[in-house]
Amino acid sequence: MEQPPQKSQAERAYAFFLEAEHHQRRFTSEELAEETGYTVGTTKNYLTKKWWWFVKKEHGTYRVEGFHDYPLQEFLVSLQQKTSGPGSVSAPKEPLTRSLGHMTPSVTIICAFVLCAWSILLLLLRKQPWWIVPL
Asked: Could you say which of 1.10.10, 3.30.700, 1.10.3470, 2.60.120 is the CATH number of the domain covering 1-80+93-99?
């Protein structure tokens, strides 16, 4: 009798995140490593570089927020190693709509500052910004 194929580390991570979000369960990088088969170093790296947009760190533990609608296939593609050479395409690290919704306060401040600086520059050049409609 054939056994079902083993889930990959990425598939186990996906299931772990779905369950953690559904039950609002907090976890450590060590627990995540144990459940998925990744090393603790890999989980810590992925938590900050690949999964930052849906995993929030609070008081030394992590919680999942905004992951439940993320398709498995997109998650798997986001974890593939980049290839190099002509014609290679790397997948986005997170969905654009989700990453914009989770901007940190410092990024928001920088964006506001750039917008204000651009507006001042346009006013100094005596040109109206595109969002000001003439009366």
From this structure: 1.10.10
